[in-house]
Prior knowledge:
- The chain is α+β, with helices and mostly antiparallel strands.
- The chain has a domain of about 110 residues: Immunoglobulins (Immunoglobulin-like, Sandwich).
- It is about 20% helix and about 30% strand.
- It is built from 2 helices and 8 strands; from the N terminus they run ααββββββββ.
- The strands form 2 sheets. Strands 2-8-7-4-5 form a 5-stranded mixed beta sheet, with no helix packed on it. A 3-stranded antiparallel beta sheet has the order 1-3-6, with no helix packed on it.
- The longest helix has 23 residues.
- The radius of gyration is 62 Å and the shape is rod-shaped.
- The relative contact order is 0.13.
Amino acid sequence: MKRILIGVALLSILLGASCGTAETQEPTPDVNAVKTEAVKTAMAEMTVQAALSPSKTAPPLTLTPLPTATLNTDAAQPPAGGSAPSTPSTGGGSSGTPIPTWTPDPYACEYVTEEPLDGPQMTGWNYDKTWTFRNVGTNTWTVADYYIKWSGGDDISPQHIYKIPHDVAPYETVVFTVDIVVPTTPVTEGVAYVTEWQLISDNGEVTCSFFHAITRTYLPDTKTPTPKP
């Protein structure tokens, strides 16, 4: 019994100490609740300050409506398939810039060759100068209507007009021959002589223009030079 009474006494003492401690200990505050209350208080103060001192605010933006497209019902509309109507073509079924056509020249010639070539010649020499041409025009060069005529430059031929040897149809060739007599005075500087000729018709149409140049002349080695073939 003594042990039981001692135990009960001790238990009473412990219970009394525990109750005293519980009565004196303060409750722990809720941190989240404190934060929420602080935010509410700050927002309330900001609302009051804004009401007491209002500030100028920019007016709201005004949206300008875009123009509305209007369908022109008077204009021609494409068919239901989506392709535009075709425009009828003129001028033989083609359109665009016309291509120029080539017109043949009735009076035209083409140089082929010549003999001798332009160069130095011996003084006093008499030789035949020849040119070969092709008729590239549409008209025939006839003996009755065409001839060779001296047209200018140095006069170093005994005659100024020569007949052509035969009729020359288009795309045929012919050899024109002119007699050249080299003057006896030597010329050693520059171009000594240039003689100019033309193929011309009776109606004054010039078909070919050509020339022969002697670059310089020199004395013969003998008194009676042999003509150049």
